[in-house]
Structures are given as structure tokens and as C-alpha cells.
Specification:
alpha+beta, 2 domains, 4-stranded antiparallel β-sheet, 3 helices, 4 strands, 41% helix, 12% strand, rod-shaped
Length: 225
């Protein structure tokens, strides 16, 4: 004959029978940590994308680490730490690469500026010799009426007696022919400041050749006014 039914176990805290409890639920992974890790891996695979992916992944990784742990909160601290490390390395490498290329561009521009300045100075010296040739052929004067010396070939050549005379203010085109100097004739502006003095300016660069005395070969090159 069956005995009386067994009494139910006493109830424990939380409304569950003593010895029992809620079934633990697996914690979901943090989306921020996952995306941070993906960005970190992407830095290694797509190096050109590191300047964009590394900052994004680093921020997301830090945010994932700041998420509180515990029931109801996402797991993934390991992924977040890995994402922070990978993205920090990617950001450092991207910075070094960008610095390297910026340095190369700056160096190339500086070298080009030096080369351009050297070319302008060479043209200045050519024009100065032609000014001296004109000055001597015009009775030691840079005034109008002297023979044109453009197209003589050598900068030390003397003009022919039949050379056309300069009417009006002396110009660079009266001294130099096309192809005799490295830069276009239109880049230079000549201003006669006295019988034996003048200023030749290269407009694109702002460099100036200031001739104080053609007789004594006193001249200097300046940048700007």
C-alpha cells in the first residue's frame, strides 16, 4: 500500500525550490569587441586601409573594455584587448608610413626648388653678360639706341654693326633670343635704374638680379623685394 506523498522541497530565495535555480544563459559576445578585432585584422590584410580602420577599431575596442561585466552584459574582453593591441600597432605603422611619404614629398619639392633656383640664377648670369655687351656697344650706357644683342649664340659675342637699334626702354627680348636661356623670356622683367645699373626680376619665383655697377661687376641675387 502506497505511503503518503512526499512533501515538496522547501522554497529557497528567489522563488525557486531549494537546491534548484535558473538555468544559466550563455553570455552574448560584445559587438564592439568583435568589430574592433575585425578592424585590427583588417589592418594587417589591407595595409592601405589602416589610416581609416585603425582609429575606428581602437575607439571601439576601448568602448568594449569599458562595458561592465556581469549578468546581462556582453562578454568579449579578450577580443576587445586583442582589438586594442592590433589597432594600436596598425595606427602606429600607418603614422610611420604617412610620415615617411610626407618626408619624401617634402624632400622632392625642396630639391625641385633648389634646381629651379639654380636654373634661374644661370639665366640671370646670361642676361647680365648680355647687358654688359649692350652697355659697351652703346657707349657705356643702358639707355635706348644701342644695338640689339639677342640671338648672338654666345653670351660673350659682340653684335654686328647692322644689328637693329633698340627703340625705347631696354627689354629682355632685346638682349636674349628664344632658346638661349632655360626659362621663357616672358618670365623675366628688366628695369633699367641708371646708365650702368638695372634690376632683372624672375616673376614666377620672385628672385631678382640687382646690378649696381656693370663696370665694376657689382651685382647680387635676392629673393623678393
Amino acid at each position: 500500500m502506497a505511503g503518503p506523498p512526499a512533501s515538496p522541497p522547501p522554497w529557497g530565495p528567489g522563488g525557486w525550490p531549494q537546491g534548484y535555480g535558473p538555468v544559466p544563459q550563455p553570455r552574448r559576445s560584445s559587438g564592439l569587441a568583435l568589430v574592433s578585432l575585425i578592424c585590427g585584422i583588417g589592418n594587417l590584410v589591407l595595409c592601405v586601409a589602416a589610416p581609416l580602420l585603425a582609429p575606428l577599431g581602437l575607439v571601439l575596442g576601448v568602448l568594449a573594455l569599458r562595458e561592465r561585466s556581469g549578468p546581462g552584459h556582453a562578454a568579449g574582453r579578450g577580443m576587445a584587448v586583442a582589438g586594442v593591441i592590433l589597432n594600436s600597432v596598425g595606427l602606429l605603422v600607418a603614422g610611420l608610413v604617412l610620415f615617411y611619404f610626407a618626408t619624401q614629398v617634402y624632400t622632392a619639392q625642396a630639391n625641385e626648388s633648389v634646381r629651379q633656383a639654380a636654373g634661374v640664377d644661370a639665366d640671370f648670369h646670361f642676361i647680365e653678360e648680355r647687358l654688359r655687351t649692350y652697355y659697351r656697344a652703346n657707349g657705356d650706357s643702358l639707355g635706348p639706341g644701342g644695338p640689339g644683342v639677342a640671338g648672338l649664340g654666345s653670351r660673350f659675342a659682340k653684335p654686328a654693326n647692322s644689328a637693329p637699334r633698340v627703340a625705347g626702354a631696354l627689354r629682355v627680348a632685346d638682349l636674349v633670343g628664344a632658346g638661349e636661356i632655360q626659362h621663357p623670356l616672358g618670365d623675366f622683367r628688366l628695369t633699367v635704374t641708371g646708365p650702368r645699373s638695372a634690376v632683372v626680376r624672375h616673376e614666377p619665383s620672385g628672385r631678382e638680379l640687382r646690378i649696381l655697377n656693370l663696370d665694376k661687376r657689382v651685382s647680387s641675387i635676392h629673393f623678393g623685394p
